[in-house]
Amino acid sequence: MSKSLFQKPIEIKISTVVAVSAILSTADSIALDAALAEMTGGTADFFEDDLTVIDVAALPSGCGQIDWGSLIALLKKYRLKPVAVRNAPPELAEEIAAHGLTLEPANAKPREEEAAPAPKPAPAPVAVAAAQAQPPAPASNGTDVMIIDTPVRAGQRIYARGCDLVVTAVVNNGAEIIADGSIHVYNTLNGRALAGASGNAQARIFALNMAPELVSIAGVYRTFEDGFPTEYARAPAQIRLVGDRIDILSVNTANRA
């Protein structure tokens, strides 16, 4: 008997979606291109087709009309995938929609969804590849921290929204962990770690065995194409933001890189 008799033609399931914010302080495409080139350091896969919300709140009033087509093309050039615009005036809704973007109100919040039932509303890990098995729902002791006790595999992304993230297992290469607060990895940190994702410049990243591909605090990035600094690699270390510079320190000494 055909399996189709027992299968629904379509199923809609909830999954966790994380979008990055591209906060513009200028509409000048040349300046934006130069800034993105400097940020990515020429790394082709610095971004991985991340869903992107364009935030125009910081644009000066006299910046002129935004060339949405050129802006979208520029972001896609750096593998950012624009899906919405935040803080734009309502009169631009039709123009924005004409370019395939939605107009997101300033107070809009992303849907917080889970890959599996969990007692808390904190987001669960999400596997980017559809064929990859979904991880178990994370344990949480409330709104202050999300705790992950299982390895974070390549292609998985975990977002601790509004709290710190604690990972007691290995974070593998190709994985991405994100927290609005600080990140604590009581194991090996490979992959990408982004703390202070909502703009908290006081957030830090800690790991017992530090070997990340990329780190970010409050939107300031640092990559390690040539490897993590040898004096801190594979050892307990912390990462913090000082001004617009990412600092690396041993957790045992005041040494810094």
Notes on the protein architecture:
A seven-stranded mixed β-sheet has the order 6-7-9-11-13-16-17, with no helix packed on it. Strands 5-8-10-12-14-15 form a six-stranded mixed β-sheet, with no helix packed on it. It has a four-stranded parallel β-sheet with strand order 1-2-3-4. The longest helix is centred in the first third of the chain and has 12 residues. About 14% of the residues have low confidence. With 257 residues, it is mainly beta. The relative contact order is 0.09. It starts with 19 loop residues before the first strand and ends in a 7-residue tail after the last strand.
Give short descriptive properties of this protein.
257 residues, seven-stranded mixed beta sheet, 3 helices
- Structural Rg: 20 Å
Strand percentage lies at 25-35%
Mean pLDDT reading: 78
Helices and strands, in N-to-C order? EHEHEHEEEEEEEEEEEEEE
Task: Give a concise summary.
By secondary structure, this protein is mainly β. The protein has helices at 29-40, 68-77, 93-98, and strands at residues 20-23, 50-55, 80-86, 102-104, 126-127, 139-140, 145-148, 156-160, 164-167, 176-179, 183-189, 192-195, 205-210, 214-217, 220-223, 237-242, 245-250.
